[in-house]
Design goal:
binds N-(iminomethyl)-L-glutamic acid; binds fe (iii) ion; about 400 residues; alpha/beta; about 20% strand; 7-stranded parallel sheet; TIM Barrel; Urease, subunit C, domain 1
């Protein structure tokens, strides 16, 4: 039998199980406890009713929330683009072309350098309460560099995404059609053993609708599941392509028509919003209120990458979503936990109810609301993944 641990004296417990507690989507319980049974949640309820366990952790009235599910990141890269950021803050606009400078640095880096960088960022994520993270390739853009990027990512997470279609690399600038053939042919073959998902940056300056359709179809044909970088920098066909393909999520969604919003709702495609990007590129935020009011399911993620958004902090994204995108604190927390899980088609994470993964964060605060109320303050005092402390 695996050892059990009772986590008790929880002032406020967010379960994301509406059948528990206050009956809201957050399934909020006050004066609560939970039991970790090996890697899973074995029991959840009132502190007064808690069963005995092998050990006891008293959190002294703190809030406990499901671990964050960061469903969109680009952690496999070398170098940084601090100078590009500084130039942008001095007035230069963001463009997809900056990706190529990270591609150059990534191709030159040994595997150990790339892996050490991912490990460093994973530790940052854990310290900020994240317990599940999706990691994309997309800074290699050769067969060998995409395959090794995914092999490195797969050592850290089951949620790996092949993004050979991030941008057309310089050596194919005059012949993008041949690059699409490479992505859908030998590169896909080399990537598939290490990937769960396939993604494409469908945007002016990256891949158009027909290229994106061909790339997603090739991935689906070999068993990868689709997700799309859609409508980030301007209006365009990304959301349409994502909905046609049955994507789990359309990510960014900063420039949507009414038809795009209706399409996301009707196709049950999650809209993943990445407000760290708009913050870091000084761009208009996506209209979360419009999506939520239309009945679209929204996820929040970091997009952690060296170009458009170099933050690993879901708490920052929650604060931005609440302050800048008119989400309520409850909606933002749900989007960064259960919403992220939905965007990864996972039902074992993003909730704290019996049978789910024992993935949670203990806050140095009496309520999850403090994540938005106290922006920039390191409020995560401990993180547990599969019942074990990771930060
Ligand atoms: O999600 N949109 C495309 N890719 C990244 C940006 C990557 C970069 O600038 O290096 C993003 O924002
Ligand atoms: Fe991205």
């Amino acid at each position: 039998m695996s050892p059990s641990a009772l986590v008790t004296n929880i002032g406020e417990l967010v379960t994301n199980d509406p059948s528990l507690g206050d009956g809201s989507p957050l399934g909020l319980l006050l004066d609560a406890a939970l039991v970790i049974d090996g890697a899973l949640i074995g029991w959840v309820g009132s502190r007064a009713d808690a069963p005995a366990a092998d050990s006891v952790l008293d959190v002294d009235g703190a809030a406990v929330i499901p671990g964050f599910v960061d469903s969109h990141s680009h952690l496999v890269f070398a170098g940084d683009r601090a100078e590009e950021f500084a130039a942008r803050m001095a007035g230069r606009p963001y463009s997809a072309g900056g990706i190529r400078s990270t591609v150059e640095a990534t191709r030159q880096a040994p595997d150990a350098t790339l892996a050490a960088n991912v490990a460093r960022l994973m530790s940052e994520l854990a310290r900020q309460g994240t317990t599940t993270v999706e990691i994309k390739s997309g800074y290699g853009l050769t067969v060998a560099d995409e395959a090794r990027s995914l092999a490195i990512a797969a050592a850290f997470t089951a949620e790996t995404t092949f993004l050979g279609a991030h941008v057309v690399p310089t050596e194919y600038a005059d012949d993008p059609a041949s690059y699409v053939d490479l992505v859908t042919g030998p590169m896909l073959t080399a990537a598939t053993p290490h990937a769960k998902w396939i993604d494409v940056f469908c945007e002016r300056g990256a891949f158009d609708a027909d290229q994106a359709r061909a790339i997603l179809a090739a991935g689906i044909a070999v068993g990868l599941q689709p997700r799309v970088h859609a409508n980030q920098l301007g209006p365009g066909p990304g959301v349409t392509v994502a909905c046609e393909a049955g994507a789990a999520a359309a990510d960014h969604c900063a420039h949507l028509t009414d038809a795009d919003v209706a399409n996301l709702r009707d196709a049950a495609v999650i809209a993943t919003l990445l407000p760290g990007v708009e913050f870091s590129t000084r761009s208009p935020y996506p209209d979360a209120r419009r999506l939520l009011d239309a009945g679209v399911t929204v996820a929040l993620a970091t997009d952690c990458n060296p170009g458009s958004c170099y933050t690993s902090s879901i708490p920052l994204c929650i604060a931005l979503a609440v302050r800048e995108m008119r989400m309520t604190p409850a909606e933002a927390l749900w989007a960064a936990t259960a919403g992220g899980a939905a965007a990864l088609r996972r039902d074992d994470v993003g909730r704290l109810s019996v049978g789910g993964s024992a993935d949670f964060a203990v806050l140095a605060a009496p309520s999850y609301v403090h994540l938005a109320y106290r922006p920039g303050v390191p409020l995560v005092s401990a993180t547990y993944h599969r019942g074990r402390r990771t930060a």
